[in-house]
Amino acid sequence: MLTTVEKVLALKKLELFSRISGEMLADVAFFLEEYSYDKGSTIISEGEILSDLFILVEGELDVISDSRKIDKMFPGQSFGELAVLDGVLSSVSLSAFTDAIVLRLNGEDFTDIFNQREEIASGIIKYLAETVRLLKREHLPR
C-alpha cells in the first residue's frame, strides 16, 4: 500500500498537477485508489467509457488498438488526464505486460476536488492553457 507522500510524488510527476503545491496534492492523494493487476489483466478496454485518471506506479502496460500492440506505458506515466475532465470513450485498451500497480482517481471525486479547491482548479486551467498555446504554435503556418 502506497503512503500519502508516495501518492503525492506520483501526482507531482504529471503535467496536469505540476503547478499545484504538495499540500494541495495531499488532498487529491486521499482520493486515489490503488489497484494491483496480474500480468495479462485488462485495465481498460477500447471503447469503454472513460472518466477516471490512471497513474502507473509499478510495472509495464501494453497499449492496444484494434487488437494490435501500439505502445508501452512505464511507471510515472498516466492515462485519462483529459477524460477525467470530460468523460470519453477510450481509444485504446491497456493490458498489464507485467504485474502492475495503478493509482486511479475517480472522475466524480476529481470534479468535487476541482470545484472545491481553487488552487487545484487554477493549476489545471493553467496547464490546459499552456497545452493549447503549444498546440496552436505547432500548427501555425511557417
Overview of the structural elements:
The longest helix is centred in the last third of the chain and has 21 residues, at 118-138. This protein has helices at 4-12, 22-29, 83-86, 107-116, 118-138; strands at residues 33-37, 42-44, 49-50, 53-58, 61-65, 68-73, 78-79, 88-89, 93-96, 100-105. The protein starts with a helix and ends with a helix. It has a 4-stranded antiparallel beta sheet with strand order 1-10-4-7. Strands 2-9-5-6 form a 4-stranded antiparallel beta sheet, with no helix packed on it. A two-stranded antiparallel ribbon has the order 3-8. β5 (61-65) and β6 form a beta hairpin. With 142 residues, the chain is of the alpha+beta class. 37% of the residues lie in helices and 29% in strands.
Quickly count the helices: 5
| Percentage of residues in DSSP E strands | 25-35%
Q: Please state the structural category.
A: alpha+beta
The count of strands amounts to 10
Overall mean pLDDT stands at: 90
